[in-house]
Structure formats: structure tokens, C-alpha cells
Amino acid sequence: MLNTLGIVSATATFMGVWLGHVAVRRIDFTTGNLLPPILTTLGLGLCVETFSLLAGDAAISAGLGILGITFMWDSFEFIRQERRIRKGHAPANPNNPRHARILQESPAATTLDWLKREPRGKPYTAEELQSISEGKP
Amino acid sequence: MNWFGLLLGIATLFIIGLGFIWVIRGERYFGYLWWVYVMGAGILLVILSLFIPSNWASALTGVLGASLVWGSTELKEQSIRGELGWYPFRAKKIRPPFADVIEKLKAPHL
Questions:
Q1: Which structural domain range is residue B36 located in?
Q2: What is the ipTM, given to two decimal places?
Q3: Is residue B110 part of a domain?
Q4: Is A101 left (phi over 0), alpha (psi -120 to 50) or beta?
Q5: Which residue range(s) make up the domain with A107?
Q6: Tally of CB atoms within 10 A around B79
Q7: For B62-78, how does the pLDDT look when each residue is reduced to its tens digit (9 = 90+)?
Q8: Angle at CA A31, nearest 5°, toward A26 and A35?
Q9: Which of B83, B93, B100, B106 to mutate to test the interface with A (most CBs of A within 10 A)?
Q10: Inter-residue contact A6 to B46 (CB < 8 Å)
Q11: How much is the pLDDT for A136?
Q12: Partner residue opposite A55 with nearest CB, options B2, B55, B62
């Protein structure tokens, strides 16, 4: 008899991480106040975790248990994402008032997506980084 | 009360946390071209989990496999982060077998 618990757990892990990764970036990009999404993901995580505790079936408990924890982690990821925006490690949205404020306050913050390029096998020089940040090819 | 899911969720958090570390270290010393092998190992682990009778061992093997698959899609961006100077850069990397062929493939990123 095949044990499907591993597949269920793997799917919950991959989908939870993927969904969180995409959702946190998109919501942070467009949302002015991060408190509602932080509280929503935290509450959703706690709810899903409660259902996992009440589930009789091991596979349902496993899937919900993993998803619940990843949702709760997402609420913390919102804080980490804002830190990335401040450092310029993720692009800021000038049309989002919160990001516009960060763009004014933090010299490293930028609308440029530094990671939208292919690896080239050698580090960038300070001059290269400067010209990329100025929008030169 | 069924504590299996909650405890498995907490274990998953640690396994994902380990992912942050191995992606950074692995890319530094081996380079992102290993993504094919990491993804393959992850898929193999998920398949292997089907044949493990113990619920805990099967679930943890599945989570570990999924974490490897996810990490394999993060290696390319981590490589760029190193080149940009956000992480220590190491020029001398241990290239994988068939690196020339892998270079022609588009490394996935989700």
C-alpha cells in the first residue's frame, strides 16, 4: 500500500511557500496599510491550524497543519518584504503612498528590480551598479 | 485533538528555514547550475515518500523533497544577489556534470 502522506505534505509545503511568496510581494506592492493583511494571514493561519487539530484524518491534519504555519509565517514576511523595499532589494511602487514615503526616506530604495537579469558569473563593479541604478544599459 | 498536523507544520517551518541557509551557501560554493540536480533530488524524495510506511517519515521526506524543489528555483536569483554584492561572492565554483548543457536551459524562477 502506497503512503500518500508524503505527497500531501510535499504539495502543501510547495503550494504554501509559492502562494505566500507571490501573495506577500503583490499585496505589499499595492497596499498602503500592511496591518490588515498581517492580521488576516495570522488569523487565517490560526483558523487553518485549529481545523488541523480537529481533523481525524492524518492527511487532512498534515496538509492543514503545514498550510496554517506557512500562512502565519506570511504575516511575518510582510515585515521582511518592507525591509527589502527599504534596502532596494525589491522594487518599490511609487503609486503606493507607503512605498512613496520609503522612496523619500531611504536612499537605497528604488523602483528598479535589480534581480530582473540573468547571472553572468562575475560580480558587478561599483561603476556598473551606479550606471544600472541610473537606468543606463 | 490531532497534534500531527501542527507538529508537522512546525517541523516544515524548520526545514524551510534550512532552505534559506543551503540555498545561500550552496550557490556560493557550487553555483546555480546545480538547480537541475537539486530539483531532481527533490522529486525523487517525494516519490520515495510513497514507499515509506511510517507516517512521520513519509511526511517529513515529502516536505524535504518539496523544499529542495522550491530551493532549486531560488538558486538563480541567489546567484544574481551574490553578483550584485548583497551576499559574499565566490568566483571559483564547483561546476556540475553537464554544466555546458544546463547553461543552455532556462533556470526556473517562480
A1: 11-104
A2: 0.94
A3: no
A4: alpha
A5: 5-133
A6: 24
A7: 999 999 999 999 999 99
A8: 110
A9: B83
A10: yes
A11: 64
A12: B2
Taking CA–CA distances from A5, the nearest residue in chain B reads: B59
Taking only the tens place, the pLDDT of each residue in A63-87 is 999 999 999 999 999 999 999 999 9
Residue A137: pLDDT band by 50, 70, 90 thresholds? low
State the cell numbers at A66.
503545514
Q: Which of B6, B82, B91 sits opposite A49 (nearest CB)?
A: B6
* Residue B2 confidence (pLDDT): 93
Cα separation, B105 vs B87, in Å, equals 25
Q: How many domains does chain B have?
A: 1
The answer to whether residue B103 neighbours chain A at the CB level (below 8 Å) is no
Residue B5: inside a domain: no
Place of cell 509565517: A73
pLDDT in tens, A1-15: 899 999 999 999 999
Number of domains comprising chain A: 1
**The three cell numbers locating residue A32:** 498602503
Specify whether the CB–CB gap between B63 and B8 falls below 8 A: yes
Assess contact for B68 and B42: CB atoms under 8 A.
Answer: yes
For chain A, give percent helix, strand, coil, nearest 5. Answer: 70, 0, 30
Average pLDDT over residues B81-97: 95
Q: How far is A52 from chain B (nearest CA, A)?
A: 6
Question: How confident is the model over A22-52, as pLDDT tens digits?
Answer: 999 999 999 999 999 999 999 999 999 999 9
